[in-house]
Amino acid sequence: MKKALRKPYRIKRKKSIFHNRLFWLGVLILVIAGTAFYYLFFSETFQVKKIIITGKDYNPPTASSHSQSEWAPRVSMEELELLIDKNLEKKISFFDTKNIFLVDFNQINKIVLANFPQIAKASFGRQLPDKIKIEIEERRPAAIFIYDKNYFLLDKEGIIFEKINEENETELLKIKNFTLNQDLKLGERVIEKEKVDQIMKINSGLINLNLKILEASLMTEKRLNLKTEEGWEIYFNLEKDLDWSLTQLKLVLEEKISPERYIDLRFEKLYYK
């Protein structure tokens, strides 16, 4: 009986990984990706080197448009640029970078508005390879807000944005809000926009009647007291038709009536004393 012959066992030598094309392809991809990553995020090419700040054009209002004084920019561009530059830097692993692609505009916008209440809105953009652009829109003073012997610039939105001395901005209408009971903080609303619009509309109408108003006091949500330059006062009901109230006032003044204390326009019938 013949025995089956076994084939001799041969050990296959494994090919070195360095002879594997896929290995070298992977290395090549990693090198390219690493080089691209470094170039995009750490090279000097895309590091922010310049911050360009611009402001929207603005035409100062005239006396007939709510008696605002001429507006001038109130934001220091140098201080704003320093603040933005300080918040550009990011850390990747152990490395600091001011890379243009990593700038967090939402975060910087919050920081800018918190530190500059004079700014109503800021828009950001990138100008490759190394510039960022910011366009700011400053708040414009519509009136002076008086609270607890302190004076603030008030914009048309009812927001206070700058504390001033009493003698400053004398041409602006002075407003008090006796319904307010809170600590004041720049950048916050102290009067509802609707109320500001009503006060400005009334003031504009009184200017057309040659009446100069020194101070407007919001006594309640619907009662507004106005102090004239002559010393007497006008009482308005803000829930009443303001056009009709101004017409009533015009008719009284055309009759050469000179009140000593007040004209009350809050009711259907006009009263004066």
UniProtKB/TrEMBL annotation:
UniProt domain POTRA: residue ranges: 95-139
Cell division protein FtsQ/DivIB C-terminal domain residues: 148-266
Keyword field contains Chloroplast: no
Pfam families reported for this sequence: FtsQ_DivIB_C, POTRA_1
Keyword Kinase: no
Membrane-crossing segments per the record: 21-41
GO cellular component: plasma membrane
Protein name per the record: Uncharacterized protein
